Amino acid sequence: MIISELAKRSDKLGAFVAALPLVTILALIWLYIEQQPQEKIANHAWYTFWYVIPTLPMFLVFPIILPKLGFWLTLLACIVITITCFGFFTLLVRQFGIDLL
């Protein structure tokens, strides 16, 4: 809700706050509070990095197709794009010894 209210006032500020990895930071804190091993906490940050990369094309495509398809079809198309990018990205990084699945 806070991000939505900020975006109403400033597109840039709303996007900046939305881009902050708040959920990841909270998850890392929670893992630490639960006294999880440092390796598990580090792995969470490591995999989060790799999972973010294939989501980036969605943010480029969304504003381009939104006027043509409307919100819901654009959202659906972006979900399909993200899943497809993730599949290809998983195959690509596997060649470098990074196993995402």
Give the biggest beta sheet.
none
- Report, as a whole number of angstroms, the end-to-end distance: 32 Å
Structural class: mainly alpha
- List the helices and strands in order: HHHHHH
Number of helices: 6
- The count of β-strands is 0
Low-confidence stretches: none
Share of helical residues: over 70%
Radius of gyration: 17 Å
Overall, the morphology is: flat
Fraction of residues in β-strands: under 5%
User: Kindly state the mean pLDDT as a whole number?
Assistant: 94
How would you describe this structure to a colleague?
- 81% of the residues lie in helices and 0% in strands.
- The protein is mostly helical and 101 residues long.
- Helix 5 packs antiparallel against helix 6.
- The relative contact order is 0.08.
- The mean pLDDT is 94.
Relevant terms:
6 helices; mainly alpha; flat; 101 residues
Brief digest:
With 101 residues, the chain is an all-alpha fold. It has helices at residues 2-9, 11-19, 22-33, 38-52, 56-69, 71-94.
